[in-house]
Amino acid sequence: MSKIPFFNFVILDLHKHRSRDIGVFFISTAFVTLLCSFLFLSSSLQYSLKNALVNEGDFIIQKFRGGHNIDIEKESLKKIEKIRGVYKAKGRVYGRYHLLNSSYFITIWGIDSDEKILSGLTQQDQLENNTMLISPSFQKYMQKHYFKEYYHFFSPEGKKIKVKTEALLPKNSFISLSDIVITNSNTARDIIGTKEDYFSDITVFVPNKSELDTIKYKLKSLFFDALVIDKRDLINSYENFFNFKSGIFLLLYMIVIFTFMLLLYQRFTVANSSQKRDVAILKMVGWSVGDIIKLKLTQSLMIGVLAFVIGVILAYIYVYYLNAPFLSQIFLGFNGLPKEYIFYPYINKLLLFEIFLLFIIPYLLSQLVPIWKIAITDPTEAVK
């Protein structure tokens, strides 16, 4: 059979029986949209997280006492830098701050003049005392409580600290998810109560990655009362967190798609008289069983592929243009200040291909046996 007349007939037959397939098409599109939205969201957050951790130190050293994080002495920097293989050790000043008259916490992060939190953000180069960079969510909180350019913080001793807003953190930066306030290190010390000769923790940079395990052992030996956090473990923990949530959703999706395929199988098994009559006419004019199976599978494949393409487009718009309302809260959490974040359009092509196979193969298999049963129908019985 010639290909062009065959495909013309396929399209004409689909158009004739469009009311029969429209429900399957919309349900299939909804399934693909939901699955792709969830996986696009997960991939985008993992990609942004990895980029955010690229410039971080290879190790983080934190001291604990009584199960609580305590400040670490400045003298520890010299001890760490004496370790062979360590390029640099840098102290950080940060801490959680409770916003008055609310249940929210924000992160106060102090930086020095030579420290770069975000590339391309020129305002961080000129942060003076009592100035700050804020996340969009904290800006909304300030406006809601009638703070415009300034916000009044209070030190642990009760001293009021008036800090001016210098600029907003970009919404497409992963760091803006943290309800963070970036300020001069001196101002941060005043707000969270860190003394001059102490840091919240210390980051360690190792240029030769093959020496990471050796350096980690030396750091643990040097600071027996401290926790040494490996950046590799930190990345793995975040990936496991995202994969865990994606896995739960994928399991639920598989249960739903399996139920849908069973219903689809039952629908095609119970062929109505119109379908049987159409098949009988085709067999009378010379169509073989193989031609009829090819016709029905081609129609199902066209419906499935079209549903997949439209579902992917809708998911792309939902996640990367509408910022995935409600669904994003599953990953970002419902606690804290409302998050305002623009997801980076990152798509794993291999993952997209796996989604296609995960959808299209069960979709076609659920219809193969019913289509074969229709194709072998006795034409004389069907036209009675």
Q: Can you describe this structure?
A:
The protein is an alpha+beta fold and 384 residues long. The chain has two domains: 195 residues, no CATH class; 147 residues, no CATH class. 53% of the residues lie in helices and 17% in strands. It is built from twelve helices and twelve strands. The strands form two sheets. Strands 1, 2, 4, 5, 6, 7, 8, 9, 11 and 12 form a ten-stranded mixed beta sheet that branches. Strands 3-10 form a two-stranded antiparallel sheet. Strand 7 and strand 8 form a beta hairpin. The longest helix has 39 residues. The two termini are 28 Å apart. The model has no long low-confidence stretch (mean pLDDT 79).
Largest sheet: 10 strands, mixed
Tell the overall outline: elongated
Number of structurally distinct domains: 2
Give the strand tally. 12
What is the mean predicted local confidence, pLDDT? 79
- Roughly how many Å apart are the termini? 28 Å
Assign the structural class, choosing from mainly alpha, mainly beta, alpha/beta, alpha+beta, or little secondary structure.
alpha+beta
Give unreliable regions as ranges.
none
Work out the strand percent.
15-25%
Q: DSSP helix count? A: 12
**Radius of gyration computed on alpha carbons:** 30 Å
Order of helices and strands: HHEEEHEEEHEEEHEEHEHHHHHH
Helix coverage percent: 40-55%
